[in-house]
């Protein structure tokens, strides 16, 4: 399951010293971030909006990664940030995103979050009538979207048709200005998003007839990432089973690590279906998106040092059982009872015989494995080697990390391009 590798990653892996020097300086597991790739991902989404002639707004879903360098890249490339807490709001401002470039999401927001969001002119996605009443009671000018519960959904988020009608006709909004509607759908179906957005165009027209200056529909995030080639994913899904995993481990589901229409291509599919792009243009409606993982595609990797190696046998075939200096909290699929499947790279490159290996964590938990699957490494791993897991910036590297066993949380290293094709690094300021 080889992951795609960007030019910056090839430079990092090909450098005879850089990774080793970083590992020596940090002394434990760490994450590598390349924010220039975030900028290119933002530009890719913007190019789709321009191709369809649709006004678009891009808000980075900050929960996907806490790195300050990502927010800075958003500020430099004209993207806003989606925040859901006071801490996230403050961090976004601290790294250069202006208040009116924020969208504040999440349920039943605290008084402090509502107050700060209103003071900074952020766009606030209102999830329920009580929250709307609390915001109005502040007496501050504020910009809002009403979050819509999708038809047939059992989600705890969003407002029903009846609640939306009360918000639109039965509430004195005072200085609060309704600018549009938002929704979120699970899964990665562009057709469902397109049809839901088209249905909300009618609601926008009705709200305008009531005097509300509505001009935005937010379709949320859920833009898939393509991690591995189609043939590798097909081979895995057709043949994988407990015989490929340490201790006969079974998983019920996996993230779809191959996607033929990821990121910007998925946005294009949304705008193409039912001529949504033309419908938005004709009605003067801006389409907002809130991608997290998709803006972090190929923008970071996670590095562990091998601390020990055992030999075990399965189906009469020997394999290594490695222990590294971190935990599977830094590859969070395991904590959703799933597996992070893109193969890690064994560094440094040396001659040797192909050797399968499962990868365990430096904890006392039997279940704490980074890779239950026996990875086909190009040689036997040795203590001191590094395992570099690719494309972990989106949700993997810090959504579930904790100082378990009082192990330090892995720091983030930020790579910068330097003259002569070199890479320089510094620590991120989260």
TrEMBL record:
<feature type="modified residue" description="N6-(pyridoxal phosphate)lysine">
    <location>
        <position position="63"/>
    </location>
</feature>
<dbReference type="Pfam" id="PF02784">
    <property type="entry name" value="Orn_Arg_deC_N"/>
</dbReference>
<dbReference type="InterPro" id="IPR000183">
    <property type="entry name" value="Orn/DAP/Arg_de-COase"/>
</dbReference>
<dbReference type="InterPro" id="IPR009006">
    <property type="entry name" value="Ala_racemase/Decarboxylase_C"/>
</dbReference>
<feature type="active site" description="Proton donor">
    <location>
        <position position="364"/>
    </location>
</feature>
<dbReference type="InterPro" id="IPR029066">
    <property type="entry name" value="PLP-binding_barrel"/>
</dbReference>
<dbReference type="InterPro" id="IPR022644">
    <property type="entry name" value="De-COase2_N"/>
</dbReference>
<dbReference type="GO" id="GO:0008836">
    <property type="term" value="F:diaminopimelate decarboxylase activity"/>
</dbReference>
<feature type="domain" description="Orn/DAP/Arg decarboxylase 2 N-terminal">
    <location>
        <begin position="50"/>
        <end position="239"/>
    </location>
</feature>
<keyword id="KW-0663">Pyridoxal phosphate</keyword>
<dbReference type="GO" id="GO:0009089">
    <property type="term" value="P:lysine biosynthetic process via diaminopimelate"/>
</dbReference>
<protein>
    <submittedName>
        <fullName>Diaminopimelate epimerase</fullName>
    </submittedName>
</protein>
């Amino acid at each position: 399951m080889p992951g795609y590798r960007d030019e910056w990653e090839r430079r990092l892996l090909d450098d005879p010293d850089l990774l080793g020097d970083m590992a020596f300086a940090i002394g434990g597991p760490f994450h590598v971030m390349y924010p220039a790739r975030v900028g290119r991902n933002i530009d890719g989404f913007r190019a789709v909006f321009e191709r369809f002639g649709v006004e678009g707004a891009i808000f980075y879903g900050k929960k996907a990664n806490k790195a300050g360098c990502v927010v800075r890249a958003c500020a430099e490339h004209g993207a806003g940030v989606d925040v859901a807490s006071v801490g996230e709001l403050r961090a976004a401002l601290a790294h250069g995103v202006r208040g009116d470039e924020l969208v504040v999401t999440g349920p039943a927001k605290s008084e402090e979050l509502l107050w700060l969001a209103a003071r900074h002119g952020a766009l606030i996605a209102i999830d329920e009538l009580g929250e709307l009443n609390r915001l109005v009671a502040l007496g501050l000018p504020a910009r809002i979207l009403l979050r819509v519960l999708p038809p047939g959904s059992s989600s705890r988020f969003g407002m029903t048709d009846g609640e939306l009608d009360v918000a639109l006709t039965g509430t004195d909004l005072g200085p609060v200005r309704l600018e549009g509607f938002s929704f979120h759908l699970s899964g990665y179906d562009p057709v469902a998003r397109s049809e839901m957005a088209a249905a909300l165009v009618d609601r926008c027209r009705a709200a305008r007839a009531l005097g509300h200056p509505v001009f935005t529909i937010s379709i949320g995030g859920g833009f898939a990432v393509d991690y591995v080639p189609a043939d590798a994913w097909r081979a895995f899904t057709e043949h994988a089973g407990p015989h490929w995993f340490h201790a006969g481990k079974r998983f019920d589901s996996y993230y779809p690590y191959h996607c033929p229409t990821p990121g910007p291509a998925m946005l294009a599919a949304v705008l193409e279906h039912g001529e949504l792009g033309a419908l938005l243009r004709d009605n003067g409606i801006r389409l907002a998106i809130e991608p997290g993982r998709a803006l972090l595609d190929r923008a970071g990797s996670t590095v562990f040092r091998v601390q020990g190696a055992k030999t075990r046998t399965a189906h009469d075939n020997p394999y290594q059982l490695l222990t590294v200096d971190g935990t599977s909290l830094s590859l969070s699929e395991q904590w959703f009872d799933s597996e992070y499947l893109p193969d890690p790279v064994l560094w440094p490159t040396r001659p040797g015989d192909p050797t399968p290996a499962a990868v365990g964590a430096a904890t006392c938990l039997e279940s704490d494995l980074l890779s239950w699957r026996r990875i086909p490494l190009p040689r036997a791993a040795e203590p001191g080697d590094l395992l570099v897991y690719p494309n972990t910036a989106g949700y993997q590297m810090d959504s579930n990390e904790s100082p378990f066993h009082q192990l330090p949380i892995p720091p983030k290293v930020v790579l910068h391009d330097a003259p002569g094709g070199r890479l320089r690094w510094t620590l991120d300021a989260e």
